[in-house]
């Protein structure tokens, strides 16, 4: 086992247990850990550290690629082992601690964390923990199901712990393309001019002097939980498929469309699955995460190539992949997130970005992160990287939710803004699709109200817009009423006016 | 005159008067015109069209680089000659029409207009009007004091009118670097790896078949009106100079800093002028506009090179430049705005972006465009292009303004968001500088309140923040009070609580 997974002999006497490794993490350290959308995360050392924190006052600043799998963030949060966390999370327990102010969370564009570390705009990285399939003969790491920020962590950290996951076949080698930008002022372009372009190495470069421990694990990634499509997600997917068919007819795109990016979740999955039907062919993807739908499209012969920073799939899809890496090696590539999400590559390739909104407003501003304007859900993730630089920026959400449609997801004014109207081209709910290209704010409002708002809210929102226009302005608003929907929901449990007790 | 300015003989019989040219602009046309921050705009044809609209019902969609000079936008707006206008303007009359809904305005990132045209996401361009110093022997255009979107307009428009400005010396040739991206899917990187990098031509390529008229003018650019620095702008500049000195001491930058971008206005000018003092040297600039301060720094030997899309300077500076283009040719370059403002180049070079805010909030969200959340001022311009992709994103504003400090420019919640907290590193008012790097929202609020808020508002804003925190949330807010400052100002003429009549 060891000889197959550690080809660099100097590391052999560095093998330690996860518990021993957990004691190499010192109180108040800043730690960078592999892991992006539950893929390729630390499954031994961080959990052991969380366990250690059950009985000991130790806490760290933890930087990852994106979200972690299993109960790692839960356990770290529960045991007060986190001072600060960035750049993304999806954990209910951690979220609770963030929202009551016990854990400081920095919500970051996923492309930026690496920049901030390299530029010295975050505190020095004391330790990196990186999952590996194996270590090559030079001491470098063959990553697993994600790259995330791992290459930057390895470069910037004082010390490194490698977590070798024996459940990942060594045949994974070859799906990664690891490249880091040169130091200022000598940076070069990322010479990626097609989704399958390669500019780096199949491994993460490691300075062996920094390695203070190697830990073995055999725990697989947490599987993706994919909710089956429902009526609403299917309706949204159908609106989008129709839109793309019309774009092809109008001659703006071919049936191969442009490179696709899709956020995580059932809507995105339903949209991608929608492409298995119809005349679309030779599709390509330049995204953050490869999901089940990616592999469905590849297996169906509809998709030629997919680039991302991680693979997060269901249990079935995962085990198929583990046995057949060789079969996919000429069809997928994983990149560091500073490249999968790089503005320059997204713009150059002309990516179609499809992301999920929590809510959007009548002018096309989007809230991706905050419930009721205050409570963090997951984080902005890569949605800003893609929306800003895309060829087409699409946001989807249901028009209303909860019993009796108590929540409208289209609002006079969003309670928090992650994406300004400048960066939003198309909005879709199950009600319809609003094409905002070339429209000024008052025109946008008309189309959004007509196409996207749930019928239960149409009159109230139209009334707000009409009265706001009477007051004037480029972006008409009535500030004293702008959040009434949110305030009403908080007070009455419904955004509907007839449910109002008092405002 | 003609033989010196038109080296392409086929054009000689296309010379027409401005009035004749104005009749080539048909009702409902979409017209792209040169002009960026009052530099290199159409000074004959568009004004003649505005004049024509005095007595005739004709109106167009007008796309420019950025703002126009003289009274062109005034006259077009006054005579109802505009249906739609994008991507930027600074004209009081036009602003009035935009805010009462008579002219549709699309506020765009200055890097994006060109993309939208090329991708077919805006209506087809019927006509381009481009100011030129002269026409070369192949019929191509040597631009004047700006490039803006002119190269894209020339590429995309059905017809072209060239406006030859004889006041611009032909020695201007050589300061431009014109490059347009290849069509999808064959785009290449912009191979600019230093501020003085050149990747294009000294001229704008023209298809002579498209040219339907050549008009001569001798009107100079509208001069920049530079307000002299006052106590507040000097204080802001001093805070920033101190900050940069500290960054150099901390080893994060050298005394050459990183390439500078500065928005237009007296604060930006004061900051740049501040660099003439101190130990800064070999400064470089990668910006949108070259202003007086740029030339002061070059003449003082403090700045080695400056790149932008236009030159907008005072009368004195302008006439010096006109007589001495040769002297500056190895020190400045003008680029199309899709390159001066390109995400990839800004990130690659590590630009320090300094832009002016109308207001910002305690979490670092910035409003750059809308007064009272509804009324458009000028537009987002390039501030988003630079803030998002910069090495350091800095926004400046005065802490309070008007008699008795009736307006606080730091607020519980901004009434409109152009730049989200993700894209804002440093905030400065005359009160102090808030360094937000590595801080979570609640930490950001503490620093912003401490450093940036005017003393008259400190207690009220601290009180809001304290009570919001008691309610919880990652970004604590009290939605029903969030806009009280704005509402109070509208009702009482002051944001101060003791001025409140009723809310």
TrEMBL record, chains A, B:
Keyword Cytoplasm (UniProt): no
One Pfam assignment: AcetylCoA_hydro
Molecular functions (GO terms): acetate CoA-transferase activity; acetyl-CoA hydrolase activity
InterPro entries tied to this protein: AcetylCoA_hyd_C, AcetylCoA_hyd_C_sf, ActCoA_hydro, ActCoA_hydro_N, NagB/RpiA_transferase-like, Succinate_CoA_transferase
Binding site residues for CoA: 263-267, 358, 378, 382, 402
Keywords of the record: Transferase
Residues annotated as the enzyme's active site: 288 (5-glutamyl coenzyme a thioester intermediate)
Acetyl-CoA hydrolase/transferase N-terminal domain boundaries: 9-215
The protein's name in its UniProt record: Propionyl-CoA--succinate CoA transferase
Organism in which the protein naturally occurs: Flavobacterium sediminis
